[in-house]
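Hi C.,

You asked whether I'd gotten around to modeling the 756-residue construct. I have! Everything is below, sequence then structure, no commentary in between.
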Amino acid sequence: MSDMLERLKGAVVARYAVERELGAGGMAVVYLAEDRKHHRPVALKVLRPELAQALGPERFLREIEFAARLTHPHILPLYDSGEADGFLYYVMPFIEGASLRDRLDKEKQLPVDEALRITGEVADALDYAHAEGVIHRDIKPENVLLSGGHALVVDFGIGKALSAAGADQLTQTGLAVGTPAYMSPEQAAGDGELDGRSDLYALGCVLYEMLAGEQPFTGATAQAVIAKRFTESVPAVSSRRDTLPGTLDPVVSKVLSKIPADRFTTGAQFAAALELASTMPVPQNVTPVPPQEGTAEKSIAVLPFANMSADPENEYFSDGITEEIINALAQLEDLHVAARTSSFSFKGKSPSIAEVGEELKVTTVLEGSVRKAGNRLRITAQLINVADGYHLWSERYDREMDDVFAIQDEIATTIADKLQVTLAGGSDRQLVRPSTENLDAYQLYLKGRFFLYQRIGASLQNGLECFEQALALDPDYALAHAGRADAYGLLGFYGVLRPHATMPKAKEAALKAIALDDTLSEGHCALALVSGLYDWDWDTQARELRRALELNPSNVQARTWHAFFKLALVEGRFDEAIVEARRAVELDPRSSYTNSMLGFVLAIASRYEEAVTHLQTAIELEPNSYLACRGLGLASRWGSRYPEAIAAFEKSLSLSGRHQWALGDTHAVYVLAGRMEEADAMFDEMVARLKDGYVQSSFFAMGLALRGRKDEAFEWLERAYEERDPLMGILKYWPDFDPLRDDPRFDDMLARIGLA
């Protein structure tokens, strides 16, 4: 070896000053040298003479040229290559640090998070190189350097050059491309045409060793190791290390599949699956799970995508991406898609995929993550089969924000393809259309929806502000107009602001949304609310609710409003209302809101016991739901179960921050329970609120009616009429108005609002 070093020094003295040997392998020797031109230390890698002779300088230099073009943060760059006095060499930066092999020799097993990070970085490098047409062919720990803890892949060019030399010439040297412990089955079998999936198999072996402390297959000889690849299954990596999460087993099993078609297609897919497996639950076994009764054959739940951004406030964005994909998939007629609220009920929890499938009655689950940094966006997604826990598909998208709609469309159309769902309108149909060209407006819209789902006063106003800002950036943004309509409508309905200040603006925004895009179910739903509860135009309310449901049969908001406002409270068709409300629960079974609304409809229909059952379910799903708590109080009060009603209403006072509805409800139950001193205190608090704020007059009318003070009740009802209190829309069948029904003035009032 000293003779070789001396000859080499003389051969490359014009360009490099060779100092000492750094290490040697079966194919090459690495020397530390100084680049005389740039005055920097470099690693000079020299092929062994017999290998250099088999390759020949022309082939070597031609093939390694491809590697010189690779530029990636996790690929060690190639500075130079050449031939000198029979030596074939290439030059790389000199990196202070050890190889992954050195690290494994010392520690055997790496911490899980570190092993996954290193694998993800190598997968990134492979994904890039494969896209450039370069296959490594010899991924192993020796070819992964660790610099500052991060991975750098080396020797990209050598594998391509060796493969170009041909099997016969290499056999004469006693060398082969690849290392048996990490070689894919097709590479071991001598298949000439390898693709990137062979590299991914080798990387899977490296990951297995980092996690388990040993290679997937071991044997006394290289031939024994290779034979096991064809005859034995890979042991679950979690069986080799007690502390490993079973979530990794399906991912490792897939990348180490014997058949290339069963592996991940790209390094990005492999990296995406690893990232998700480290943050989300995957079944620890593959025991088939029979579908639940009532489960559609083609069905899916989209779990909330995890916010992986450094800023936790970006959660609105990951939630919004999830909802956009749910809405896109809902357009597929042959696919049953679990509703948003039911899917989001698993947020922050760690259910198994089998549990999700059982709860939501679906056969597949999509989960993912979103990482947003400035204008850069990384979205990962994986589709999992509930029956066996295996991944049907996974992908990672590293794009600019400009591509956000395209990514959503790619995910939705890929799922349609994987589940063999027919796209109405043809295979080239776009499921996700850009709703705005202004990405800042889009992000504001997502944030607005995020606030609206919280359904409390401050959040409704925050949501409205977001929609207003979005429209300032894009005045023709139809979805933002629909969001603005919802915000104003709910602010008026809940009595946060006066109806005259909110409802006309809600109507204006809804009409604008429909004018810009008549296919928006959200716009028609928002118009239905204001048409009924402010205009008292019940025909328009009915028409707009029908249109909203025609456009999107899975629109749970439209379906619950159709059941509650139209069928129950306007038309008194209680049996049909109950059927419709039950349909909403079927669409969104884990939604506290849908179960609450079914409870309200049942209570109005005097089916109190059934109502209580559903309202208790709603509270179990969301213990701090004011709406569910209020419903339980009403069903108990109307069923003359006053102690239970008092407990529910007193809790609702706390949950709502003493919202005016909670004050009015608690006042009413105290009156009926004969606790007049406490009732007077509640009533006085409502009156005091009028000095500095707003209280819906309907609540005064209801409270005074229950006290038997009819004349005063009608005075307040007249005020409610003048201010167009949205609660006038519930007048006809709401039980708290029962003491007034035998008075002609009540029939007159119903006629004046079109409900005679």
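If it helps when you're writing up: The chain has 33 helices and 13 strands.

Thanks,
B.
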